[in-house]
Specification:
The chain is an alpha+beta fold. The protein has 27 helices and 15 strands. The protein folds into five domains: 86 residues, Zinc finger, CHC2-typedomain (DNA Primase, Chain A); 132 residues, DNA primase, catalytic core, N-terminal domain (DNA primase DNAg catalytic core, N-terminal domain, Alpha-Beta Complex), CATH 3.90.980; 117 residues, 3-Layer(aba) Sandwich (Dna Topoisomerase Vi A Subunit, Chain: A, domain 2), CATH 3.40.1360; 63 residues, no CATH class; 184 residues, no CATH class. Strand 1 and strand 2 form a beta hairpin.
Length: 636
């Protein structure tokens, strides 16, 4: 483990402006720097770096963070990898703390497996130069039209025909039987001797995001009905099949540049596409596309093209992939290949530009794609129509974005010729079913009711959070109320306008807030702190003085909501004002959401549920809107 001391040193010397500047051309804009975002495609710069705060934020795609986050995002590094990168850049020696024995064991286990697999990869690649490799494997690679650059880039190799070609080589070179078995590279026979998992196969090493070999795929070259065409390494401590995408390590930079990831099915598909010049391509290889794999893609782009064979199996796989991608907030489209092609033959028949054009012209969103294989006999059958509409709407409901939902409902309306009203009703019905499904009470309730004291503790904490936030609003009013917000109004007027209709929970705060409201409503003249302070009740006097005199602080609750503390000098009070207002609203909405959810659970009729669900969607939209405004305020 990297010591806390080292981490702090790395963070204190790493300069976000300089680090980002290694990858992005930045220009000065006020106190900040501005450039083209490396995380999404844009023509006018919206990627902002704040040297003073040590953070970056893109107003286009929303990516934000500090130096460590930047390099993690950009290079797909893990946290320790990012720290090591920065340490190297700034010449800081990494001090590792004493790990617990089991941690050391675990670490050396993983390290040993990486070392073994890396050696295995080199061994297989060298085998290409052996007599056997030259006579069998090299001609095969040539026949598949793979050039040396592709072979090198993907570190292809050959496993010997001997049953223990690799195992005996590895034992001779000091690797232990234990790790050979744990890595899945060797299998133990009954007599205790080892044989290879892979023999007489073309070897495709599978890399993780940082480029380490974690497993292999092997393809048989002879036609042999008894053996599988492809076999893969088993899952191990370092190879999680549902998380790894074949080719992602080689493709990640291109995926970011194109803001697009093409997903194909197999190793050869990736290699042929790569060689045709289509570099932003990966394969799920060995599993059907999983949530985790799509989440890996989402680190680099939101746009996914699923390139599948046009047959029924391909369609089914594509539909499944689409739904998982929609759920992850990705923007998936499907490209079906011409009937005579699979991705491999397709990539060999065309060049990069032709492939890009074909994809552009034939990419279908999920509605168009599902509609494309409606059978002739289904077209005028109302039963099929509603079945297909339901299928499409189920996909629509996976979209986190309500605007996008409306867009697709319109599209379904056009394609299926159903009325918008019918579609919305069906959507509501599906939504209710889904909600009920997800909120089904458990049959056996084994949870213990909270102890009275802990329940009380929760209430006290909640009360404190409310108090802190409402106090912060009053304090802001007291300190800055008479300062200008813009040319037309002062802070007091702005805040009263923004907070109109919001209920206060703390009586003291509400009473003082109402004084401000009166001050502007009744007298309609410039606000004066003196006037507000001129209160009769000593209780209010106390409350107010206490608020003004406490050192500048922001409640923990705020820090939690925003994720970092805000330090605002006196002369730059506007962000603080905006934050105070936005956060105040945000918490109100969170409370309304919680209340609404309880109401939905207790609703007596479907109509009532429908109505409450509409409220729910509305609140979610407001919450998102507020959250993005809060994000914008922090850095501006
Ligand atoms: Zn961006």
């Amino acid at each position: 483990m990297i010591s806390q001391d080292t981490i702090e040193r790395i963070l204190s010397v790493s300069n976000v402006e300089e680090l980002v500047g290694d990858f992005v051309t930045l220009r000065k804009r006020g106190a900040n720097l501005l450039g083209l975002c490396p995380f999404h495609n844009e023509k006018s710069p919206s990627f902002t770096v704040s040297p003073a705060k040590g953070i970056y934020k893109c107003f286009g795609c929303g990516k934000a963070g500090n130096s460590v986050n930047f390099i993690m995002e950009l290079e797909g590094f893990s946290y320790p990898e990012a720290l090591k990168y920065l340490a190297q850049k700034y010449n800081i020696e990494i001090e590792e703390t004493q790990s617990r024995p089991e941690e050391i064991q675990h670490k050396t286990d993983r390290e040993s497996l990486y070392i073994l697999l890396s050696a295995a990869q080199k061994h297989f690649t060298e085998n290409l130069q052996s007599e056997e490799g030259k006579s069998v494997a090299v001609p095969y690679l040539k026949e598949r039209k793979l050039n040396q650059k592709t072979v090198d880039e993907f570190a292809l190799g050959w496993s010997l025909s001997a049953w223990d070609g690799f195992s005996s080589w590895a034992l001779k070179n000091g690797f232990t039987k234990e790790y050979l078995l744990r890595s899945g590279m060797s299998v133990e026979k009954q007599d205790g001797n080892l044989i290879d998992r892979f023999h007489e196969r073309a070897m495709f090493p599978i890399h993780n995001l940082s480029g380490k070999v974690v497993g292999f795929g092997g393809r048989i070259l002879r036609n042999n009905a008894k053996e599988a065409k492809y076999i893969n390494s088993p899952e191990t401590e370092i190879y999680n099949k549902s998380r790894i995408l074949y080719g992602l390590f080689q493709a990640k930079k291109a995926i970011r540049q194109h803001d697009l990831c093409i997903v194909v099915e197999g190793y050869m598909d990736v290699l042929s596409m790569y060689q045709a010049g289509v570099v932003h391509v990966v394969a799920s290889s060995g599993t059907s596309l999983t949530e985790d794999q799509l989440r890996q893609i989402k680190r680099f782009t939101d746009n996914v093209i699923l390139l599948f064979d046009g047959d029924a199996a391909g369609q089914k796989a594509a539909l499944r992939g689409i739904n998982i991608a929609l759920e992850q907030g990705l923007n998936p489209r499907v490209v079906s290949l011409p009937a005579e092609h699979d991705p491999d033959t397709f990539a060999k028949a065309f060049d990069a530009e032709e492939i890009a054009n074909y994809i552009k012209e034939n990419a279908q969103d999920f509605v168009q794609f599902r509609a494309s294989f409606i059978k002739e006999e289904e077209k005028n059958d109302p039963h099929f129509q509603s079945k297909i509409a339901k299928e499409m709407l189920e996909s629509v409901l996976l979209l986190p974005d309500t605007l996008k939902r409306a867009f697709y409902i319109k599209e379904i309306e056009k394609i299926l010729g159903l009325s918008e009203k019918v579609l919305y009703e069906e959507t509501k019905r599906l939504q209710v079913d889904k909600f009920k499904q997800e909120n089904k009470p458990h049959e056996v309730n084994i949870s213990v009711p909270p102890q009275e004291s802990s329940q009380k503790q929760i209430e006290i904490t909640q009360h404190n959070a409310v108090l802190a936030q409402e106090k912060q609003v009053i304090k802001t009013l007291l300190l800055y109320g008479d300062k200008p917000y813009d040319e037309t109004q002062n802070i007091c007027r702005y805040m009263v306008q923004e907070l109109e209709g919001i209920e206060w929970e703390i009586k003291d705060c509400e009473r003082i807030y109402n004084m401000f409201v009166e001050a502007i409503c009744v007298e309609d003249e410039l606000f004066s702190l003196a006037k507000v302070l001129n209160v009769e009740s000593t209780e209010d006097q106390n409350f107010i003085s206490h608020l003004i005199l406490t050192p500048h602080e922001i409640s923990e609750n705020w820090v939690r909501v925003i994720g970092r503390s805000i330090v605002t000098p006196e002369q730059n009070y506007l962000p603080e004002i905006k934050s105070a207002v936005l956060n105040f609203k945000l918490r109100k909405i969170q409370r309304l959401l919680a209340q609404n959810e309880t109401d939905i659970k207790n609703a007596k009729s479907d109509d009532e549920v429908n109505e409450l669900l509409t409220v729910h969607m509305h609140l979610i939209d407001m919450k998102k809107q507020l959250a993005s405004e809060i994000g914008a305020v922090i850095i501006s």
